[in-house]
Specification:
A 5-stranded mixed sheet has the order 3-4-6-5-7, with no helix packed on it. A two-stranded antiparallel ribbon has the order 1-2. 26% of the residues lie in helices and 25% in strands. A hairpin with a 5-residue loop joins strand 3 (96-101) and strand 4 (107-111). By secondary structure, it is an alpha/beta fold.
Amino acid sequence: MYSRDYLVSKKAENKYPLYYETDTHWNSLGAFYSFEEILPKIQNQFPNIALPKIDYEMNVNYSETAGDILPMLGVKKAKSTQISLSPKNADNSDYFEYIKNEGRNGVKTLGKNKNLPKVIVFRDSFTSALVQYLSPLFSEAEYNWRQFREADKEYILQNKPDIIIFEAVERYSDSIVAK
């Protein structure tokens, strides 16, 4: 799946940015639109399971931040739009709980509905903003901040996920291809 075209179409109909102005990463809104592309693919894999449908509300603030672009330009901070989405009349904790939240070193969540499928995700930093949208769809979700490795085969066989997601930003595609 390549969500660039969908994100470009959403950018055209939105007054808010889908990426942080001072960073190469998408913000919560950009991640949500990418999630909208992922959701039907997951639903197609599990047609007999009713995945939760969550309505989100948006909150917009502004802050001064450096992100990951400005330091490359020697700029310490600039005004940036901060967008967050949260479930309407609910909390993320109504749908899942964090069992482990070590950021870069790994995130694991448990969904409230134990009848949902289980996922293992191999990812980069872009998935950080997707965790809140993906986790409610799974009884258990493990997010590993690394590319899939040969050593992960045994781990997958032991844990028996229903689905495996591999997310990688395009700029690292050369390191994904087997050498």
